[in-house]
Amino acid sequence: MSQTRELAAAIDIGTCRTRAILGRFTSDNKLDVLAFGEVPTQGVRNGVVVNIDEAAESIRKAVLILERSTNLRIKKLYAGISGQKIGNRSYSCYRMTDGNEVTQAIVKGLSDEARRHSVEVGEKIYHLVPTEYTVDGEREINKPVGIAGRRIDATFNIILASENYEKNLCRAIEKAGFELAAVYVNPYVQGTACLSQDEKEAGVVLLDLGAGTTGISLYYENKLRLALELPFGGNVISNDIREGCNIIPRHAEMVKVNCGFAMTDLAPDHKVAQIPEVEGWPGKEISFKSLSGIIQARVEEILEWVNFQLESTGYVDKLGAGIVLTGCGASLNGIDKIVSYMTGLDVRFGKPAVAMKEQLFNEQLSTPGSANLLGILIHGLIASRNLKYPAGMVDPVVQEEAPKPEPAKKRSGGFHDLVGKVKDSFDGLFEDTERK
Q1: What integer best gives the mean pLDDT of the chain?
Q2: Same domain, 249 and 345
Q3: What's the confidence (pLDDT) of residue 393?
Q4: How far is it, in rounded angstroms, from Cα 290 to Cα 385?
Q5: Which of 123, 170, 174, 228 has the highest count of CB atoms within 10 angstroms of its CB?
Q6: Beta strands 123-135 and 31-40: pairing type?
Q7: In a domain? residue 327
Q8: Residue 125 structural domain
Q9: Buried b (16+ CB within 10 A) or exposed e, 154-165
Q10: Residue 81 belongs to a domain
Q11: Domain CATH code at residue 211
C-alpha cells in the first residue's frame, strides 16, 4: 500500500483559529504528525459556520500550509462540528433471542431501532453509544454477543446535532477545494486525545473552554454518558471587558490573555494594564483587580451552567478522576482554581494521552488547546484504517520537467534551406515511427 494512503488530514474550525494537521500511525501505534497549520478564522460564530465563503478561505489557507510543507496535495478532510444544538438522548429497547443466545444480528437490530426512533425533523444522529446491556436481568454486560439468555435489553446514549451544521461545513470545505471524508461531534472526539482509559473508567469530565462554546464530555465506567456544548465561551468574557472598560475588541482580548485572572483574589493589588491610544481612542490604565472582577463574574456564570448539566446526569458524586480542562480558555490564569472551587472536584490541565512520535510540532500540540484537533485526526485515522480499500486522502505533487528548447539550425541559401526542410520532415517521421 502506498504510504500516502496511510495519511489522513483533519481540520478544526474554531471560532477564533482554524487549525489543520496531517498525520499517520507508525508501526508501533504512535501518532506521527507530518505537518501543522494555523490561521485566524473568519465566517464562524459560536462554533458554527455562518459565512461559507469566509470559512472556506480560512480552510484553504490552513490546508495550504500542510501542502507546502509536505509537497503533497490533500484531497479529503476529516472535520468536527460544534454548536449549541448538540444534544444527547437516551433510548432503551429490547429483543427476544432466537435459540436462547444473543447474536450479533440481535445487537445490530437494537442499535438500528435506536437510530430509527430517536431523530426529529432537522436533527441527525452522529454517534450511538451503548451504555448498558442487560440479559435476563443480569446487568452491566459490556459484550453481550454469545451470552445465553432469552431477552436482552439495551440502553443507548444518542449524540445528535442540527443537520445544518454539517451542511454548512461541507459546503465550506468543498468551496475551499476539498472533500469532507467524515464529520464528528467535537465533544465526542476530544476525550480520545486527552483522557486515559483509567480516567474514563473511574469517572471524569472533559471541560473544553473554547472561544465560542464550552464543551462538556462526561465518562463513567469507560462509557460516554454526556456530550454537549454550551453556546458561550471566552468571547463573552472579552465582550464584557470591552464594554466594562470601554476599549476596542482587540485590546479587550489582549488584556484578558496577558493580564487577566479568573479569580480576583489571585490578581496583584497594585499592577495596572496599559491600554495604548489608537485612532482617537485615548490611552488608559486598567487595574488587574478590576479586570479580574469582570472576568470572574462571567466565568462563574458559565460554571453554573456547567454544574447544572453535570448534576442532571446523576454522576457527579461518582467522578473519581475529576475534571480535565482543555481549549484555549484553559490558559487563563487561575482557571483551574475557580473550576475546582465551583464544582468541588479535582482539576488538571489536559495534554495528549496518545503516544506521539517525536516531531517538531509536539510542543504546539502538547497544549490543552489541541484536544479537539488531535481527537478528529485519531478518529479519522481509525476510520480510514478500517476501510478495506481506503480512499486516497493525499496525493504526491508531481512536478513535470519543462521541455528543453531545440538548438536553432543555421542555414544559408535556397538549396541548403530546401535540404534542411526535407531533413526536418524525415526526422519528424522517424521520431513518430519510433514512438509507435
Answers
A1: 87
A2: yes
A3: 64
A4: 53
A5: 228
A6: unpaired
A7: yes
A8: 87-161
A9: bbbbbbbbbeeb
A10: no
A11: 3.30.420.40
Q: What is the mean pLDDT of residues 214-225?
A: 96
Residues 6+ apart with CB under 8 A from 400: none
Domain identity same for 141 and 215: no
Residue 6 pLDDT grade (very low, low, confident, very high; cuts 50, 70, 90): confident
Q: DSSP states of 199-210 as a string?
A: HHHH-EEEEEE-
3 state DSSP class of 132: strand
User: Exposed/middle/buried for 133, CB within 10 Å: 0-12, 13-18, 19+?
Assistant: buried
C-alpha cell at 415: 538549396
Residues 319 and 204 both lie in one domain:
yes
Instruction: Quick: pLDDT tens for 18-55.
Output: 999 999 999 898 999 999 999 999 999 988 999 999 99
Q: Are residues 292 and 244 in the same domain?
A: yes
Cβ(217)–Cβ(241) below 8 Å = no
- The sign of the torsion formed by the CA atoms of 237, 241, 243, 244 equals positive
CA 262-265-271 angle, to 5 degrees, is 85
Angstrom distance (rounded) from CA 28 to CA 296: 45
- Cα 93 to Cα 109, 126, 140, 149, distances in angstroms: 10, 19, 15, 16
Domain-located, residue 325 = yes
Q: Give the full edge-to-edge strand order of the sheet including 223-230.
A: 223-230, 214-220, 204-209, 323-326, 347-349
CA distances (Å), 208 to each of 82, 120, 224, 237, 401, in order? 11, 27, 15, 15, 49
The count of domains in the chain is 2
